Amino acid sequence: MGIKSEYLKLAFEPSVLQRLSKEKNYKYEVTHIGGYGPIHNERNKILEEAAKRVKIDFWGYAIDNLDGNSPILKNYHGECWGIDLYDILSSSKITLTKHIASVASNYANNMRLYEATGCGTLLLVDKKDNLGEIFEIGKEVVAYENVDDLVDKIKYYLEHEEEREKIVKAGQERTFREHTYEVRMKELVSILERYL
Q1: pLDDT in tens, 143-170
Q2: Can you list the domains of the chain with their CATH numbers?
């Protein structure tokens, strides 16, 4: 449309961790927190298929969009927001995300990238063209290509705790180094200085 625009990634606020338990206590093996409305139908199908094969605990909104027999509902715990969301992430060995295809196209940039890694959980994220620019795939986050790959990686990383924890640590360090709001505001100042 001829309007000048810039790319500014989302971020994480590390001070939220001060409100969470200092001791790492994994209450959940695999979690998903998000929406289940019509815009998420593609993701819902993948999550439902995965939930038939491995136990996943779910929180989110718009469950009235799901079929009454949806496997998501078997381990659905209601909505969660704010500090409760961070607490669940921090208490999860693995958390899942999948971008909304109609919105994100083939680009990674949703909040869960930063929230999950910042809270110290292993993030399994759908593979996107620019994901490697944000996190090192396989060393800071784990990317999956389809539901079979997702399920295989869930099983693998639940069985390989040391490897999982190494990725969790590296992902959190990367988030603290490059993906905080303090870093983003410096990037924003740099953008504004070019225009003002």
Answers
A1: 999 999 999 999 999 999 999 999 999 9
A2: 26-195 (3.40.50.2000)
